[in-house]
Design a protein that fits this description.
This protein is an alpha+beta fold and 399 residues long. The chain contains eleven helices and 19 strands. Strands 2, 3, 4, 5, 6, 7, 8 and 9 form an eight-stranded mixed beta sheet that branches. The protein has a five-stranded mixed beta sheet with strand order 11-12-13-15-17, sandwiched between helices. Helix 8 packs parallel to helix 9 (344-352). The chain is globular. 32% of the residues are buried.
Amino acid sequence: MKSYRVGHSYRDLTKRVPEDEFINWLDTNGSTIGTTGGIRPKKFLSSMLLQSLGGLKVPSSLVITTTNISQQFHNPWEDVVDYNSGSIIYWGDAKFDPNDRERTHLNFSGNKILNQIHLLNLQQKRHLLPPILHFSRNQKGWVLFNGLCVLDRLETTWFEDKGRPIINFRCHLSILDIKEVPLEWLHQRALADATEKMDQNCPIVWRQYLQGHTNKLFVWMGKIRTRDDQLPPQDSDEARILEQICSLSPVQFERFCRRLFQEMANHTGLQHHIRETRHVRDGGFDFFGRFIIPEPLNYEIEFKGEAKKYHQGNGVGPKEVSRLVARLQRGEYGIFVTTSYYTQDAQKEVREDQYPVRLFSGMDLVNFLKALGKIVDGKKINSVWLDALDENQSPISDD
């Protein structure tokens, strides 16, 4: 029984041969996925089922890939796979089209599928939603399976393609708590002749999802992260992005962190109010504010934050984290940001003492920028966005 296991790599030869473990494994009597593209639908084979869908362009399953290596086709997107939160930020397939300047993000094949899934989500028709399998391509000839996913939210936002602002979809995916996905289930879905037969032998976690419960992957939530987990690999594009952050002046870094959290609040749909507490040139900064969960909950979360622009050879220890904890009042939440990493002792102290503190490392900052679409050409921060951090400019608005 073949299956895709989370964290394992599979041969991708871009052709249907026995040695291929990607498109060849996903082939079901003619229902397969394309050999190229980041968004690849797998169609239904039964005309009876297609007729019952009433013209809906929904696939039996959807395979999406994130390519992190050089390739033949231009790729302006920066996706984020975050096992710590069991989530993936995935961009749609809209690009700048020099031959059709009137083409919108809804006219791209992959985005049409994502939009259809989004509409079914809004209509609460989960029984029609396809399972989404996400893979990363980190080396030629191989794909890494990141998990079985579902679409939580679809946003329309701007990103930059070759210096031009482009509207695209940004998908928020949840990775479900399942270690391996049986291919037999995907084949049965493709062959089903009625909607009630699509998931007769589906994994338990998918049945829970159909019943309204999204059981996210939290296997890594309690993990003590190593230094390598918290920093990008040397000589990588991510390392060059982090170098840009480290090259900011103290005041620019203060504004960088403040603006980053402001935009991340907008990114998550929360209302927010963030202020800096002081302007000092000591390599760190403090800020405070609140996140507001809107109606019908209407709940406010007060927080205080601290950041340390450390050299990557120096880790943040328990002493620095304890300083932030000591400043928290009852009911407040703490945010600690560093360009470096956190020692094991610092992480253990937060876990064992159950401090209401979230630790963000250098790699987390890079992933924030990717999620916000602030990375250009895969290896540098948007210059316009950075220019707004200039010390001579007025402070950024609180709202």
